[in-house]
């Protein structure tokens, strides 16, 4: 049995022309090479959650959810830690990401999340990150301190279309992954030792 943590890397944007899969693959590859993680790259576009949240699919309702909701639930449950990769849309996170967060509750609980953001402004998506730092605690999910941001990402491509700033961020990515592994192991041990008390 592997002693690696199961890491879910989530591509939070779904609109056409999105850049999200590029930094998501970059951080997923670094995580796979890190040594502490088995990586599952989760694309919310492929997950195709229903836009209408029915009674059947509500996390608080007993019974079996629909197939697409159940499939993503299994992948989130399996994860011991997450990296959310998202762009910033109108000073916040995309609706697709908030939609996916709100579909689930226990899948997120007592697990750490690292944030990788990008945007067209100098903040590099940090408004989206700050909103996620407000949202995840309601699910009893811990956002780690270290994060990565790519400001004005569209300005940093070479003549072959390759993004030129990933190399600059590799030391920060190493620190992020080290911290995420530490919290992942601590919270996994805690979940195994005792169930998280109900907040209700």
UniProtKB/TrEMBL annotation:
Residue ranges occupied by any NADPH-dependent FMN reductase-like domain in the UniProt entry: 7-153
GO MF assignments: FMN binding; oxidoreductase activity
Origin: domain of life: Bacteria
GO cellular component: cytosol
InterPro entries named in the record: Flavoprotein-like_sf, FMN_Rdtase-like_dom, NAD(P)H-dep_reductase
PANTHER family in the record: CHROMATE REDUCTASE (PTHR30543), NAD(P)H-DEPENDENT FMN REDUCTASE LOT6 (PTHR30543:SF21)
Protein name according to UniProt: NAD(P)H-dependent oxidoreductase
Gene source species: Glycomyces paridis
Biological classification of the source: Bacteria, Bacillati, Actinomycetota, Actinomycetes, Glycomycetales
């Amino acid at each position: 049995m592997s002693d690696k943590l199961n890491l879910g890397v989530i591509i939070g944007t779904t609109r056409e022309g999105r850049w999200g899969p590029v930094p998501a693959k970059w951080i997923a590859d670094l995580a796979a090479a890190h040594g502490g993680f088995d990586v599952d790259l989760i694309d919310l576009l492929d997950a195709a959650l229903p836009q209408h949240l029915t009674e059947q699919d509500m996390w608080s309702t007993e019974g079996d959810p629909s197939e697409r909701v159940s499939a993503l639930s299994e992948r989130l449950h399996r994860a011991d830690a997450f990296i959310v990769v998202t762009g910033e849309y109108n000073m916040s996170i995309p609706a697709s990401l908030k939609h996916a967060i709100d579909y689930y509750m226990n899948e997120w609980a007592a697990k750490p999340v690292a944030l990788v953001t990008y945007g067209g402004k100098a903040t590099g998506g940090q408004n989206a990150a700050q909103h996620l730092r407000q949202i995840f605690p309601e699910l009893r999910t811990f956002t780690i301190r270290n994060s990565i941001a790519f400001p004005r990402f569209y300005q940093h491509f070479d003549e072959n279309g390759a993004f030129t700033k990933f190399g600059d961020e590799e030391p920060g990515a190493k620190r992020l992954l080290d911290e995420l592994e530490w919290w992942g192991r601590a919270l996994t041990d805690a979940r195994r030792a005792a169930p998280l008390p109900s907040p209700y």
